[in-house]
Amino acid sequence: MNRFIVFDVETPNHWNNRMSAIGITVIEDGIITDNFYSLVDPEQPFDWFNIKLTGINEESVFDAPAFPQLWEKIEPIMSSGILVAHNASFDMNVLRSCLSAYEIEWKPFVRGICTVVMGRSLLPGISHKLNDMCDYYGICLNHHQADSDSRACAEILLRYLETGADPEKYIRTYRLI
Fold first, then answer.
1. Which domains does the chain have, with CATH numbers?
2. Using 50, 70 and 90 to split pLDDT, how confident is the model at 1?
3. For site-directed labelling of 6, which of 38, 39, 42, 73 has its Cα 20 to 30 A away?
4. The three-state (H, E, C) secondary structure of the chain, written as one string
5. Is the C-alpha dihedral spanning 51, 65, 34, 1 positive or negative?
6. CA-to-CA separations, 170 to 16, 35, 51, 120, 167, in angstroms, rounded
7. 165, 156 in Cβ contact below 8 A?
8. pLDDT grade, residue 2 (50/70/90)?
C-alpha cells in the first residue's frame, strides 16, 4: 500500500449532506504527487455560518459542477488508493450522502484512514484539531479551504509515516451505502 488519496470537503449548510468544495491530495511512495480542487454546486441553500467559515456562497459556485459531473472526473482518483481524511467520519459521511442523493453507485465500502484517530494514538495528550496539528508541525494552513486542508492532512500523514507509523494499523472500513 503506497498510494493515499487524502481528501477534504466543505459543506454549504448544517445538514452536511452536500459538498460546496473538495480538495484532493495524492501521496505515492511517501511523496505528494498530485493535487486537485474544485468548487461544487451543492444544489442546496447556504447557511450564513458555512459562508462565514469557508467563504463559499451561491455566487462562488454559480459555474461550478454539481456533484454528478464532478464525480465523473474524481472517481478514478478516489478509486486509486486508500482514502484519508482528518476527522474521516465527517468527510466520508458527506461523500456517502452525495453518492446517495444523486443515486450514484460506487462501492458499498471503502478502506480509509482518519488522521485524527491515528494522531491520538501516536501523539496522546495534545489537541488533534487540524489547525493545532499544523501549528505543531509548522505546516502552512488556510483553514476551511478544502485544497489547503487536504494538503495539510497529507503533510500530517507523511509526518506520522516518517516516524515509522504503520498505516495498516489504522485502516478501517467505511460504509458508503
1. 3-175 (3.30.420.10)
2. low
3. 42
4. CCEEEEEEEECCCCCCCCCCEEEEEEEECCEEEEEEEEECECCCCCCHHHHHHHCCCCCCCCCCCEHHHHHHHHHHHHCCCEEEECCHHHHHHHHHHHHHHCCCCCCCEEEEEEHHHHHHHHCCCCCCCHHHHHHHHCCCCCCCCHHHHHHHHHHHHHHHHHCCCCHHHHEEEEECC
5. positive
6. 25, 23, 33, 11, 5
7. no
8. confident
Contact 16, 93 (CB under 8 A): yes
Q: Which of 21, 25, 36, 19 is nearest to 3 (CA)?
A: 25
- Cell numbers standing for residue 103: 443515486
pTM of the entire predicted model: 0.97
The cell for 8 is: 477534504
- Positive or negative, the CA dihedral 131, 136, 142, 145 is negative
Give the torsion sign (CA, 59, 16, 88, 41).
negative
Sheet with 109-114: list strands edge to edge. 31-39, 21-28, 3-10, 82-85, 109-114, 171-175
Amino acid identity of residue 22, one-letter, is I
| Residue 174 amino acid letter | Y
CA-closest candidate to residue 156, choices 141, 168, 172: 141
